[in-house]
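fold-stage: in
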Amino acid sequence: MPMDFNKAKFYKSFGSVDQIKNNHLPEFAFIGRSNVGKSSLINALCEQKKLAKTSSNPGKTQLINFFEVEERLFLVDLPGYGYAKVSKSKRELFEGIISDYLVKSSNLFVVFVLVDASIPPQNIDLDFINWCGQFKVPISVVFTKTDKRKAKQIQKNTDDFIRAVSLNWAELPLFFETSSNKKEGLDNLVNWIINSIHNV
């Protein structure tokens, strides 16, 4: 049965995982450093400019935001990690919300960890991915901003990142390459999500 991501709509925001009740739909979560283009990717996937809130000021997402797609799945926009300009107490609160959700959510199908392909591998991304492995959180890696550098540099950055992940992972997660601006790689990601639902 076809699924139209264009029909995605805002469902609800949650301040803690304990508030998420009576949900039986699979959840596909998105997370990454605060300026990685997370909200832009969700908007691009759904072909809506204002579905997820974007801002020139990183750290805009401060709650767990659920978007429903045709009553068949949720796209979940998680607070970004590693944003230095929020207070330490607020940063710890965000990180608590994130870890609680990832470990406790019974409907989490996968968390897409977004990684900026326009820069060399960052330890904060690698540390987060390794944390997910330690707690058996299912992940896939989505490279963003693949249009921001020459193809050769993008390839080097992504190759270096995959090589760094492989040092700690016996079996590598799936990797996707995307550009929200140029709409590249989005179909692959949408099709993978839809096929995952069909195969459950």
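fold-stage: in (second)
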Amino acid sequence: MTTNIPYDKVGIADFDTTDIFSQVELFNSTIPDITTEDFEVAANTTLKTYAVVGLNAAGKLVMATDDVVGGARATNALTLTAVGTANETVTIGSTVYKLVAAPAAGYDVKIGATTAETTANLIAAINGDPAGLGTLYGAATVEHPSVEARLNAAGVIGLVADVPGTAGNAIATTETSAVGSFATTTMTGGLDAVGIQAIGVAVAGIVTDGANPKRIPVYRSGNFNPAALVWDPSFDTLAKQCAAFRGAPTPTNIIIRPRL
């Protein structure tokens, strides 16, 4: 389709100043063609008429958001059942911690008189706790660059990636200890943070419950006045609203033009 609109590519949304809204109306023009498509709405969701909507991870209709949400940090756990033996190691990523009677080199960790003490010393070394530097672990040790450690339970060291994302799932976690074991050989559970991409505009409002699936039509193309749409609060500037549909998948072809 050939139009006189400069932003006529699928998934592109922006505005120019050649056309204006004479009032707060929904459509600025009939170019591009106004089209709709039906979608199932997510359970326990309220959508108002002309709400800017997207699809959640399950492919169900929800409010689109500009916020980065849903990220999770990867985790793992090391369980110790005894104090440990000299020269046993714990490896997190590329950092190797070695159990010793008396710390000398970097990443040496003192074997405690009890399991609780060895656990605490390892946590101190991983986190770079200054209180233990040179006594509970080697003076040349620095804080782990990718994870932090915490006490999950007696003898259990919980590891949490410093930042959310799937990259944390690639952090290897291994040991050579007869009394220690990781839950898994790498960190797990990391999720990348994402928003909900705008893919259309709800033609009608709806309220759903958890038992009865409902579908509504959604505008997938058209030339819209942002002032007439219902936005998630995260779209808190005109610039964000004008860019809301940029990058949306085919067949979204929505143009946003503000009233002048």
